[in-house]
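Quick one:
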Amino acid sequence: MSPKTGDKAPDFTLPDQAGRPVALGDYLGRKVVVLYFYPKDDTRGCTAEACAFRDGYESFTDAGAEVIGVSSDSVASHERFAGRHDLPFVLLSDKDRSVRKRYGASTLGVVPGRVTFVIDKEGVIRHTFSSMTNVGGHVDEALRIVKELSADG
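Output:
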């Protein structure tokens, strides 16, 4: 069953683009996490989404949030993708799609979806946005929620 707004976000540990393990729990108590699942490195929509998060990254960090992208691409693919587009945030490799499955971030349960979760400092999902086509909406909606959470203290 996919987690919903108000649920505790499932913890996980995955390798980042440098091969280092990153756990969602590493951010608890410290930062709001914008966790976005995307289908594939270097595809048109995914590149546009990553670059939109890159362009808004300073606004996210200024509001106390960290952006984390997740796809099933390899560590090496993420390293190339991040380097090619100057992505300042972490990309995690979910090779077996186990984390994607735990979050229900698929379309019709099979196709890797484009889903963004905003997770507060206590690890509670505060907002979910799912759209394969409204790439900019992921960034705009996430930033709006992050700013609301930072205003709430």
